[in-house]
């Protein structure tokens, strides 16, 4: 396999993983629906930045340490799932729908960025990917490993930006439509809350089984 074919294969795998619903996608969706496009893109930026930490941790072997100490990995897994579940519960308890002035999940863009990064760092799917898949695409025959890791991270970052950015823009358009229809707004708020809680439960259960 040529190096370019190797990279295309990695992109295909990454796209499949990122396109699957999970904590990161749920956070971007909730941020964009509650705070609009800017908040959604701030969430995307934080998640992309979290990817830098994942690659760095893998290079330093910290990811393997988490795998070898189940208690630490379980704590990270549950913290991420509980955080997204809290956002979902907040939406279920909201009495105003996706209203930026009162929504409990709205926060300044800078804070949203850091929360997105925090969510990415608590995402068990990311750790499982970095432990099981990422190292398989580092080949000494293709040059310095740190350069390869940088290129692979670039592929991850671009894919995250395209997929999650598309979700943020779509959610912002839906938010504008819902604001004109109060009854639909509240119904959508409840459904998104349920979806976030379901995503948290699914991620937590599946991630725990994957340990």
From TrEMBL:
Transmembrane segments: 6-29, 41-66, 72-92, 113-134, 146-167, 187-205
Membrane-topology annotation of the record: Multi-pass membrane protein
Cell membrane recorded as keyword: yes
Gene Ontology cellular-component annotations: plasma membrane
Pfam families, sorted: LysE (PF01810)
Cellular compartments annotated: Cell membrane
This protein's UniProt keywords: Cell membrane, Membrane, Transmembrane, Transmembrane helix
Chief localization: membrane
GO MF annotation list: amino acid transmembrane transporter activity
Domain of life: Bacteria
InterPro entries in the cross-refs: LeuE-type
Protein name per Swiss-Prot or TrEMBL: LysE family translocator
Organism lineage string: Bacteria, Pseudomonadati, Pseudomonadota, Gammaproteobacteria, Lysobacterales
């Amino acid at each position: 396999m040529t190096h370019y074919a190797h990279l295309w294969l990695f992109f295909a795998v990454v796209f499949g993983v990122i396109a699957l619903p999970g904590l990161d996608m749920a956070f971007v969706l909730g941020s964009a629906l509650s705070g609009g496009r800017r908040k959604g893109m701030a969430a995307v930026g934080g998640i992309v930045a979290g990817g830098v930490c994942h690659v760095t941790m893998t290079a330093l072997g910290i990811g393997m340490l988490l795998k070898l100490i189940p208690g630490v990995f379980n704590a990270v897994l549950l913290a991420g799932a509980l955080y997204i579940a809290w956002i979902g519960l907040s939406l279920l308890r909201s009495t105003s729908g996706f209203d930026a002035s009162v929504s409990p999940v709205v926060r300044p863009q800078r804070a949203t960025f850091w929360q997105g990064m925090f969510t990415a760092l608590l995402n068990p799917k990311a750790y499982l990917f970095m432990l099981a898949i990422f190292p398989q695409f580092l080949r000494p025959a293709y040059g310095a490993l740190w350069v390869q890791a940088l290129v692979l991270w670039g592929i991850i970052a671009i894919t995250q930006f395209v997929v999650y950015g598309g979700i943020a823009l779509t959610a912002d358009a839906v938010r504008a439509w819902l604001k004109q229809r109060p009854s639909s707004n509240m119904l959508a708020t409840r459904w998104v809350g349920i979806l976030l809680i379901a995503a948290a439960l699914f991620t937590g259960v599946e991630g725990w089984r994957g340990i």
